[in-house]
Write a structure and sequence with these properties.
About 70% of the residues lie in helices and about 0% in strands. With about 70 residues, it is mainly alpha-helical. α1 (about 5-10) runs antiparallel to α3 (about 25-35) and α2 crosses α3 (about 25-35). The longest helix is centred in the C-terminal third of the chain and has 19 residues, at about 50-70. The radius of gyration is 12 Å and the shape is globular.
Amino acid sequence: MRTHEQIIKEAGPQVLADSLGVSVHTVRSWAQRGAIPHDRWAALIAAGCTTLEELSPELARVVSDQQGAAA
């Protein structure tokens, strides 16, 4: 399974930005955070960049990390 950062790197930030209608800077910020916003998942899946199975476990890891940091 790839991380969200790896998905972005492999697809290419500019390619994702163009296909999603956002700036490349936005996509790069997602990579830095290690989290692709869930409202963009359907478009990424439809474009063949990833799968829901790949996106969901990574989201669970990010949430867990954030909760651990808040404790």
